[in-house]
Design a protein that fits this description.
The protein is an all-beta fold. The protein is elongated, with a radius of gyration of 37 Å. Strand 23 and strand 24 form a beta hairpin. The chain folds into 3 domains: 225 residues, no CATH class; 107 residues, Immunoglobulin-like; 123 residues, Immunoglobulin-like (Sandwich). It contains 1 helix and 36 strands. Strands 10, 12, 13, 15, 18, 20, 21, 23 and 24 form a 9-stranded antiparallel sheet that branches. Strands 30, 31, 33, 34, 35 and 36 form a 6-stranded antiparallel sheet that branches. A 5-stranded antiparallel sheet has the order 4-3-6-1-9, with no helix packed on it.
Length: 467
């Protein structure tokens, strides 16, 4: 039923400590500018400590083009201005306007609070000052049905202080900048505001139209001024920080991470492509990762962190998409990934090729070579310390050779090179003109290469894939 809302953040109720002594009572005027009656509901949200409570205090019908005065004298409030009001009505934005002042019997007779439309931006900023004994207090209110994070940025001297506050639904947060300085409160990175800070800029923003205002007050001079400059804060400048984007099939790697800034946009809207940067590398965005082709790359483990691990399911190229969402805006990156398959080996060079030293009545040949493994794209694998194992099988066998040890193992070194040696002795050499053909299957870190090697052994030579 209720379609629009106006919000008053940090309403003086009772005897707040920042204002001159007296009992403050909210007085509200609501006007229906539309041509039909509106149903109006007023909620009062009071926070004690960090615990909010909310109650409906008024529910009435306001005739078309009429005004109603409300005195909210049955409310209780604490000393910290942690009280907020939400006015809901079943019309369009602009149909109903509300004005609120808190009056008291003190010398400072009334404090006016400006209303904010529920969807009129998700943050704000204003200069703050403690000069001449003033106090600067930031008041935040979360009207959303779920908890949400508010980021607060305060400049003081040459320090940029940055802290995230988690507010429950209907919670009002009271942040005294003077207390932050005096109590040496650390931000999320361990920084504190300089003890001699007297002025600067404060910014605040949230992910779901949270509201805030800055109160500049001086109890002695009976001064209280409210500043509620609305801003639109959105994700901007997304980028990908690569990890291992090219990796081996059947392996799991840290593919990379994404990050984005929060910008203050000059125009309304959930997403922005321009504007001044308010926060670098925000931690407030939510993340989601997916693969465009799961037969090549699969997400391994969590898909909702700022970084992502991937598993090589099959050889090829595909993109891994990373989405970052904040305040209704989603920005995406789609970095390419490559899963490499050990495909074949290439001959780097021959170390030696010579007659084998055999016992009397036997002769043979001995050849040592250097090889490298290449992937399906013909690119070398250049990793050192990778185990290379083999399996040999004999086909044509004119020389009557046997396979006494049909397997072997070497490790890669020097940029992916590994040693390979073939040798034999037989009593049919040197007279025989025949040959023995050996099929070699190689395994790269346990993964069988796609192509096999053919080793042809003759009495006066050994060739490897006709080389």
């Amino acid at each position: 039923m209720i379609g629009s809302s106006s919000i008053f953040t940090g309403v003086p109720v009772g005897s707040p400590s920042l204002l001159p002594e007296g009992k403050y009572v909210p007085q509200m005027a609501v006007t229906n500018f539309s041509a039909r009656a509106l149903r109006v509901q007023v909620q009062y949200a009071q926070t004690t400590g960090d615990t909010p409570t909310a109650q409906k205090i008024r529910d009435f019908t306001l005739p078309a083009r009429s005004t109603k005065q409300l005195t909210l004298d049955n409310l209780h409030g604490g000393a910290g201005l942690q009280n907020s009001l939400v006015i809901d009505f079943d019309g369009a934005p602009g149909d109903l306007m509300a004005k609120l002042v808190s009056t008291s019997e003190s010398a400072f007779f009334e404090v006016e609070i400006l209303a904010k439309d529920e969807k009129s931006g998700n943050g704000g900023s204003h200069p703050w000052s403690l000069e001449q004994g003033n106090d600067a207090t930031l008041l935040l209110f979360n009207s959303a049905p779920e908890s949400q994070a508010f980021t607060v940025l305060i400049s003081g001297g040459d320090v940029f202080w940055e802290k995230t506050y988690e507010l429950a639904s209907m919670q009002t947060q009271h942040i005294s900048i003077r207390n932050l300085i005096l109590e040496r409160v650390q931000d999320d990175k361990g920084k504190t505001l300089p003890e001699d800070s007297q002025s600067g800029l404060v910014e605040w923003f949230s992910g779901a139209n949270g509201k805030g205002r800055l109160l500049e007050s001086n109890k002695e001079s009976a001064m209280a001024r409210n500043f509620s400059c609305t801003g639109y804060y959105c994700l901007c400048n997304p980028q990908f920080l690569p990890g291992a984007t090219s990796f081996l099939i059947s392996s799991t790697v840290g593919f990379g991470s994404d990050e984005a800034d929060i910008c203050q946009s000059p125009v309304p809207g959930p997403c922005c492509n321009k504007g001044s940067v308010a926060q670098h590398n925000t931690s407030s965005a939510s993340h989601s990762w997916s693969s465009n082709n799961t037969s090549i790359i699969q997400i391994s483990g969590s898909s909702t962190g700022s970084s992502v691990n991937t598993y090589g399911a099959g050889g090829g190229n595909t993109n891994v998409e990373g989405d970052m969402t904040y305040s209704g805006c989603t920005v995406s990156i789609a970095p390419p990934g490559t899963v490499r398959v050990p495909y074949s080996t290439r001959l780097v060079s021959t170390a030696w090729s010579r007659p084998m030293s055999c016992q009397a009545g036997y002769a043979g040949w001995d050849r040592g070579i250097y090889e490298k493994v290449v992937d399906q794209f013909g690119q070398d694998f250049t990793f050192d310390g990778v185990s290379m194992t083999e399996s040999l099988s004999i086909g044509r066998n004119d020389l009557g050779l046997t396979c006494d040890n049909c397997s072997g193992q070497e490790n890669t070194y020097g940029g992916g090179t590994f040693d390979d040696r073939f040798s034999y002795c037989t009593n049919l050499c040197p007279a025989s003109t025949g040959e023995t053909d050996v099929t070699q299957v190689l395994f790269y870190n346990g993964i069988p290469l796609h192509n096999t090697n053919l080793v042809v052994e003759k009495c006066s030579s050994i060739t490897w894939n006709s080389q």
